[in-house]
Prior knowledge:
The protein is mainly alpha-helical. The protein is built from 16 helices and three strands. Helix 12 packs antiparallel against helix 13. It is extended. The model is unreliable at 48-61 (pLDDT under 50).
Amino acid sequence: MATTFTYKVKDTKGKIHDGEMEATTSGAVAKALRDKGFVPISVEEKTSSALQKEIHIPGFTDRIKFKDVAVFSRQFATMINSGLSLLRSLNILAAQTDSKALAKIIGEVKLKVETGASLSEAMAEHPKAFSTLYVSMVKAGEVGGLLDETLLRLADTIEAQVALRQKIKSAMMYPTAVLGLVVLIVTAMLMFIVPLFEDLYADLGGELPAPTKMLLLISAIITSYWWAVMIVTGGSIFAFKRWIATEAGRATFDMIKLKLPIFGTLIHKTAIARFSHTMAALTRTGVPILQAMDIVAETAGNAVVAAAVKDVQASIKEGESLAGPLASHPVFPPMVVQMMAVGEETGALDTMLEKVGEFYDKEVEAMVEGLTSLIEPLLIVVLGATVGGMLIALYLPMFN
Length: 400
């Protein structure tokens, strides 16, 4: 039975056209459009009623989860290893993927491959799902004839990153909740409880202690000018986001993050773990070292590490080894430099990098567990001290 499909195509002059066509499958529509000289961009089944249309919320309904990409990669590798063709594998994956956003992208990748593009070229058009690292490794896998192995490595890499992020996120959940509770309690006290005491002090007369005066002043500002507080807070957040979006702002902020007490060490070790895993994955796949350094800098997640990688890359172009220039940058610990030097000498750079990555993964896990046990009682003390300090300031005039 024929189904109506909506399509979007590009003609020989690069102009975009859209329309509808009846066919049994989306592949049949794509073939018919190519026969007419068009390049298919997207082909989707037309919904029969407005009620069937999905609500699209930018940033939410089109969000691609790393976990979904990892599952896709592992299933894709299994299918290719079993002898299925690229197009058939992509067709099956588009139909069975739980994420509708990812399924749509897989369908568009399939259409692009059908027009003669390589898999890496098709994936490069969808950076939301496939990062520069992902595309580069797929390209190397295509050239080396090891696409299934490459996809499995990508799945392992993504799953390791997801697991690490989840551990950090879980560890930060309780402290975040406690901080939110502190803010809520303090705001409620300033807006509703402190003003009641102000009337009482007016009846008592006399000079108020400095802590009480300060508390009353803060309460008056929040209750009378809450709108100004919200504007200033919102404006500050907006200005901060604009600042860190600039190259200089990002570099400065990332430098500050690395120098933070306790958390700076955690951020540093996480960045080194990511650097090591990414370099290991790229070198093992056969990506040239200079190209690998470009990708590592782009995916470093920290501007300080990225700048150091770029400097090392420039030194390698001038004929230096990899380990030598790394030693001149304090962001790379001596152990990392020594392990990479041994890897270069023995021809097992990817293995050494993977070991460094695993070592720092364990270091990060241990730090996260330690921080959790340290932060929980500390936040309870902060909560008690804040609320207790406010209560003392409120009752000081009565003691006098």
